[in-house]
Structure formats: structure tokens, C-alpha cells
Amino acid sequence: MILKQFYLGCLAHASYIVIDERTKTAAVIDPQRDIEQYLQEAANHGATIKYVLLTHFHADFIAGHLELRDRVGARIYLGARAEPEYEFTPLKDGDALEFGDVRLRIRETPGHTPEGMSIVVYDLTTSDETPHAVFTGDTLFVGDVGRPDLMASVGVSADQLAGWLYDSLHDKLLTLPDETLVYPAHGAGSMCGKNLGKETFSTIGEQRRFNYALQPMTKEEFKAVVTAEQPEAPAYFGHDAMMNKMERSTLEANLERSLKPLSLDDVLALQQEGAQVIDVRDSADFAGAHLPGSINIGLGGKFASWAGTLLYKEKKIVIVAEPGTEQEAATRLGRVGMDDVVGYLDGGMASVGQRAELLAATERITAQNLAEQLESSTDALVLDVRTEKEWEGGHIEGSVNIPLPHLAERLDELPRDKELYVVCRSGYRSSIASSQLLAAGLTNFRDVVGGMEAWAASSLPTTVLKAPSCPS
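User: That's the sequence. What structure does it adopt?
Assistant: C-alpha cells below.
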């Protein structure tokens, strides 16, 4: 048996392939939407992917089950409670897929979602009784468990889901031997939990000892613990969960349609008609020159999740990128279901040429110069776009906190008679925020280069206080 993990850092997503060497048969678990790596891995071993299994309907990315179905004819398997639009095979407790020396046995584990399941893996050349590993999806992570509040819907409350999660963990997963390897669907940085560890796999025994949510407690205590202090779910989660249930077009078909070079005049015309222009270059290049009204979400950061959070799903998208990176941008947008890309600026910003009237720039300032401005001016105000928890953990005295996902809806709170200084942790989010401010017509601000990391590196002071309301 060959078992391989694929880890997508920008979405903190883990997927897997299991190959039986004797029959040259493969199964893929929780694939990402761009499936070439699974096809290549199967080809490397002369295997055919016959099965694709989703542990649940993921909310934070679009899975590649339809892509594998359409490309190689793989059969889709889901938990017994699943109700998708496409044909699938439902799996309930005790059901198994067996191919050659591999057995995949199902344990239904609702809680993060109603249809959730975990997949226990047996290498039959070693033992048909002792499992080798378990794919836990979003039920059990390294250091955490799946949050039960994401998919609460009509008829299924977060409280009910939390109760199911407790039972799934204690009655299904913790009954496995301590040496069973744990392979979850996410790692640190995922918004599907609040305390995920940086390791991408573990064992049942390690989690039994060290996972806060698996320590001895009553079901009611567990519900209170796992629902407390969960991070705000990005706006696109509900959209993606629905897309994973739908019969939809594949990523390959979307890219063929959307990767069209557009002239500068075409881009400007589309923007005038309401299309969103997204500039995926890094913040320094964007600050130097960009198209007015464009939003900067750089490929160098958590591009897909921020694009899914901040872009409008019902509006067309035009990409501005360094030549050669347009397909990467469109692919990563497709990973979170942002499929309405209509093309990219042919030649990138070089196509603007000498038309200076079509260029805008963002003013920037270093942390040290910001400190000097704050000392000398009474009209200076720091706008911190990190999360409230980050802000409370240490911020510039007198700063106001408007988390980036809520900036566009709270622009009216920003004073027009002060010089604003936009800051985040590293400068990635503040560049996004600055582009939103410019697109909204604000010019009384500067972007702080390097963010709070640069502030701390300059040994400048921070304070820990509850965030005040933004002055009008």
C-alpha cells in the first residue's frame, strides 16, 4: 500500500491518495480542484484512480471530485446523509471499499457537518484487524476538532452538531488503537477550527493525551469549549459548501473559458460595466503603479481565501498579473469557487505604456517614520486591519481596529480630517485595505510597510487594550 499526503499551504488543506500496488488501483480522499498531482502520482505507479471520497462537503475550498470523475471516470463516494445533485455511492457505518491489499472502512462521524465520515485504512499485507491510519476529515485535527457552528442550518443547530461531534469523537475515533495514524483534512491556518497544530499528521494516542477537546469532560462542557472563541468564518464558506453539493463545471473547462488576454481598453470597458479588477502582484509593485479602482490581493499570501472573502461572487473578475502568472491566479480563484473570471490584462501593467492618466499609486511609510509622525502630529490615526484578537494581543497606542473583512462596510466610520496610517501584521492585508480605500475614493492615508512586524523590529512600543470605537 502506498499512502501519500498532498498539502496545500495557502488553504492549509491536506488531501491523500492510497494506491494498491498489486492491483494498480487508487483512491483519492478530499482532493483539491486542480487534480494534476493525483493523476501524476497514480501514473508514476502505473495505477488507475477508481475511487474519490469526500469526508464531508467542504466549506473552505472546492473539491476535485467532479474533475476526477470527468477526467478518469472515478466513482464518487460520500457519507450516507449526503444529498448532492450528482450521482454518488452513499457510505454508512461499517461499509468498506476493498481493492487488492487495501481496505477503506467507514465510520460515520457527523458533527462538523451532518454527513461527515472518517475513513479507516487497513494495509491487508500487515493486518486485517489493526488499522494503519484514519482519514478524519474535519472531525479531528492535530490539536483541535472541527468547529460545529459553520454548517448549522434549518433543522440542525450548532448545539446539536456539537453533540454529534462529541459522540463521533468518543464512540468512533477514540475507540481506534493509539498507534493509528491520524490524517486530517486541514492544518494550522485553517478557519475550520481554532487551535490547529502545525503538524499535518499525528496518532490517536497523541491526540488522546494532548488535544484539549479530547480531555475528560461532559458533553455539555465539550459543547461550551468547542464553540467558544471560534474565528469568524469567511463569507465564501457557505457558497463553497453549496458548490461541493452541486453538479457544476470543472476547473479545466472554466480555465479554458476564462484565460483570455484582454486589451487595456477591454479591461477598462469591463471595469466601467462593473467588473472587479484584481491585481495579484506584490504590494510594492502595486503601490508603485496600478489601475485606479483595482484591488490588490497578492499571490504571495493567502490569496484564495482573501479573494473569496472580499470579492463579489456575482460580479465578473478581470486579472492583472505579472505576465506568466495569470493561470496560477485563475486556478487559485477556482479553488474557492470564484469562477467568473473573464480574462486578464494582456502584457500586464506594461501595456499601460505612457498613459499616465491611467495610473494610480499608494503612498507608503516605514514604521520608524510612522512613530515620528505620531509623536509630532495630532491629526495622525493608525487604522489596524488585523483581527480583533490580534489587535488585543498588542497594538499601536491610539490605533483603531477595523478587521479587513469588514472594512468596506465600515468606510463611513473613517475620519476624513485625519491622516490615516494602515497597518496589519506584515503588510499583506494593509495593501489590500489600502487598495479598497483608494477604490472608494479615499486618499488621506499611507500604507505602513512591513506592518506590526516592522514596528516590533524597530523596538517601538505596543499596548494591550480593548479596541475603542472608530472616531467619526
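The CA atoms of residues 111 and 164 lie 5 Å apart.
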